[in-house]
Amino acid sequence: MDKSSITRDIEKPLAYLSGLRFIRDSTKESKESYESNQLKLDATMNKLLRCVRVANLPEEPSAKRVMYRTQRSVNAICLAVESFTDSTPENSTAAEDPPTLYDVSDMSIACRNLHNHMRGQYPELKIPSPTALAFLVVNDMNSLIMEVQEEAKNLEKALDCADAKLLDMAKKEVEGIRDPTSLKLLSEIAANVDEILMKAVKQQYQALEGKIENSVRNLTAVGKSFVNVGERISGAGEAITRIAIHVKNSVDTARVGDSAIVTVGNTRIIR
C-alpha cells in the first residue's frame, strides 16, 4: 500500500477542518434555532402591541421602534456568528474586527417615548422606567455578542493547533508503519476523522447555543413585563370607568330654586 496516498488521505480531512467547514455546518443548526427564537420574540412583541391598543394608547411609531431595536439586537447575534463562518482561517479578519455593539440610546429613546405616552394617558399610575428596560436589553445583547466573538476566536485557535498536531502525528505514524493491516486501519481512521471532529465542534456550539437561548428567554421576559404593564393599565382604566358609573348612578343632583336636592343611594338631602 502506498504510504503517500495514506498521508494524502489524512491531510484531506484535516484540511477540511482547517477551512472551518465543521463550524459552518454546526452553525446551520444554530441558525434554525435563532429563527425559531425570533418567531417567539415576534409573538411576544405582537402581544405588546395588542396591549397598547387595549389600553387605548395610540399606535405611535415610537412603540414600533422599541420592537425594531430589540429585533435588530437579536439579528446582530446571528450576524456576529456568521462573520466567523463565511471565511477560512487563512484569510479571515473577522476575529480582529471590533464588534458592533449597541448603546443604551439605541433603545432608551424609543422606550422613553412609549413611557411618556403611557404616563400621559394614565398619570395616576407609576410607569416603569424606560432606562432600566434599555439597560437590561442592551447590556444583555452586547455581552452575548462579545461572548460569541471570544468563543469563535478561541475555537479557531484550538482547531488550528489541533490541525497541526494531528497532521504531524499522522505523518510520523505513517512513516513508522510497515505492515499492510496497520496501513489499512490507519486509512479507515483517516476516512472517519472528520466525523469524529464534527462531534467535538458540535459540543462547543451546543454550549454557545445555550447561552443564546438564555438571552432570548431574557428578552421574552422583558416583553412579558411590557405585557403585564399593559394589562395593569387596561385594568386601571376599567376600574376608573366603573367608579365613574357608580358615582353617576349613586349621586343625582337637581336644582330647585336656590336649594340643591342631592340623592345618595335612597337618602335625599336638601342643601
The helix/strand class is: mainly alpha
Instruction: Provide the residue-averaged pLDDT.
Output: 55
CA-atom Rg in angstroms:
32 Å
Indicate the overall shape.
elongated
Looking at how many chains there are and whether they match, the oligomeric state comes to single chain
Number of strands: 3
Please outline the major beta sheet.
3 strands, antiparallel
Strand order across the largest sheet: 1-2-3
List the helices and strands in order: HHHHHHEEE
| Number of structural domains | 1
Number of helices: 6
- Helical residue percent band: over 70%
Low-confidence stretches: 1-25, 52-61, 80-97, 252-265, 267-271
The first-to-last residue Cα distance is 118 Å
Strand content: 5-15%
Outline the structure in words.
Keywords: Coiled coil. 76% of the residues lie in helices and 6% in strands. The protein contains six helices and three strands, in the order H-H-H-H-H-H-E-E-E. It has helices at residues 3-18, 21-54, 61-82, 105-121, 130-176, 180-250; strands at residues 251-256, 259-264, 267-270. The chain has one domain (3-270). Helix 2 packs parallel to helix 6 (180-250). The protein has a three-stranded antiparallel beta sheet with strand order 1-2-3. With 271 residues, it is mainly alpha-helical.
